[in-house]
Amino acid sequence: MYIIKNAFKSITRSKTRNVLIGIIITVIAITCCIALSIKNSANEVEKSYLDSYKVTAQLSLDRGALRNDAKGGSTEKPADFDPKAFMSNVQNITPEDVMKYGVSDYVSSYLLSIQTNMDSTDLTKVTDTVATTDNKQIPGRVTSIMEGSSGDFRIIGYNSLDAMTQFISSTYKITDGEIFDIDSSNSCVISIELAEENSLKVGSTFKLNNPNNEAESYTFTVTGIYEDTSESGEFSMFSNSANQILTTYNTLNNIVTKSNEVEDSKLNIQTNATFNLVSADVVDAFTSELKVKGLSDYYTVSTNLESFNQSIAPLKNLSSFATTFLIIVLLIGGSILVILNMLNIRERKYEIGVLRAIGMKKRMVLSQFVIELLMVTSISIILGSTIGSVASVPVANYMLQSEISSQESAQTQVNENFGKGPGTNGGNQVRNNMMSIFGNNSNVDYIDKINAVVDIKIILELAGIGIILTIISSSISMIFISRYTPLKILSNRA
Amino acid sequence: MSVFKIENLCYSYDNGKNLVLDNINYEFEKGKTYAIVGKSGTGKTTLLSLMSGLDVPKSGKILYNDVDISKINENKYRSNNIGVVFQSLNLLPHLTALENVELSMDISHVKVANKKQHALKMLDKVGLDEEKANRRVLRLSGGEQQRVAIARTLSYNPDVILADEPTGNLDAVNEKQVVQIFKDLAQKDDKCVIIVTHSQNISQDVDYVYNLEKKKLTQDNN
Ligand SMILES: Nc1ncnc2c1ncn2[C@@H]1O[C@H](COP(=O)(O)OP(=O)(O)O)[C@@H](O)[C@H]1O
Ligand SMILES: [Mg+2]
User: Fold this and answer.
1) What's the CA gap between A41 and A39, in Å, rounded?
2) Ligand 1 neighbourhood includes B20 CB (under 6 angstroms)
3) What is the pLDDT of residues A268-323, one digit of tens each?
């Protein structure tokens, strides 16, 4: 087709005009490429974060509703209605319940802890005048009412280090020794206050006994001493966890089972459970499954998706910033391009007039102008996206790197809280957990992913932008070419 | 049979306030040269615009081979049936003389074995050698540009050639040569050549002269 040849000649022989348009489109392409790659990599990180985010569910008793219904509530109650019996009919969650609920396609693992109170003949309780060591209820956790509990020391058993949330949240920190092996029995960590009061060191042993049956006693070995960094009670010298002994679930469960063998000496326990769900999509299915398995309607299922949404907020902000930036660049760049094209066409009015006067069809003239624009636009976009993708990789990497380094510092902190160095294997389970939260990927994988996004998606999006810009500019040409008759153009000039 | 015919042609500017062409009639034949002579502002260029289909008459008809040109596709009519050498030449400055001719051939879909060779032949016919053919038109003199414009119209072999003041900017020698080219086209190639001019010199060299005066085209046989 001769118009292609003609378009090519027209571009190469009017360099200044086309170089100017080319530079503007190149700049638009570079900025669009960077904005798009930031947007896409932010979305990508968010997506992989969601894919690997550990969605957890917890069960909590809706005491308000329970009490309300026990008092009479809205419905008519039979004459022999007994509020106390009604309350106790709502079963406390037991470790057996948790295990039953945990066997589910929706659950990848579950964290279980039980706690009870015991006495000791070896140890002196840490007290001051106002110190409180009573069972503080942790909000959102399954807790049962401790009926007639006695015992000076609170003992808590965990089925996994991940269940020890105070260490992960840095509330507790090992200051001497290290955390017990989760498979060990009768090893424990104790508070720094308890250790000092009783001159206990790492490796020391002590006895705990059933408050209901003093003959029933167990020996524990101290593997580590922790400090509670949370605020203690206003008038207390000691932390709320001063008389607290932490051990494994199996150790405490064996003690509880034993206590049941002797009449009236059974230890009352309180159960906490957190279920790790396979994905965010199964929350509703898991909830209905729990009801089918017999969970009382007075229990509600809560998840940590709220905190997920909070943690991706910066990514979301970055992505929407990039989108806004992109729109502004396109609007400004598009307007400049339209104005330039108008000037360009005005300048070429004579040429249009000549071509029409020697019999070239309107649509042929238009096609030639569109082809010229397409040539300049595509060359500029290829150039711009090359520069843009080279420039956007450091930008995206910088963004990712700061993301990753904040994740890594969080990991190092968790290891330290357990009394492990960052390099040791001790906190492996936790570290694996953290790694899976943050995508289960090495840094290099992240960068590779972003490069792939630049390659395909962005190039397509840029091509789309180029087509839109060409269409806008072409419609300007079209209006001019159709509006001017060759006579008008040529006689204006003469 | 006349190849070109003007019947009762009227044209005015400014919504009829400025009547330029008033009831003009005439016929043009192949193989003849015609001069339409008139002082500046008498409407020569206006008449040529109407004949080349760039503008439409207020009343009356222009017939090409007895067909009203308003019924012929304007692009086809301009690119194949008539060749116009405009007063302002209308060459494309970013192209060479050769490329200007070739572009016209492309637009007219001229079927020749070797397009470039044909274009060079047309340029040679009006006295431009290959070196000049490959120059950008702005690097050619006024007379040479005039020849390029003529060669461009010849390239697609139209029946009628219209030229507006073709010798307006030329010296006496060049004027003679260009007029000779037009005469040859009529005599050797059987074209109908119509030259619009204010120059009395041309009148002596053409077959028929029409005086465009007092808003009427009056015939004046030589
Ligand atoms: N586009 C136009 N609008 C209004 N009047 C015009 C226009 N073109 C030409 N005229 C007028 O029409 C008359 C004839 O002009 P033109 O055909 O160019 O004459 P010529 O070519 O013989 O010098 C002049 O009086 C001129 O002023
Ligand atoms: Mg004139």
Assistant:
1) 6
2) yes
3) 888 989 999 988 889 999 999 999 998 888 888 988 887 777 767 777 777 888 88
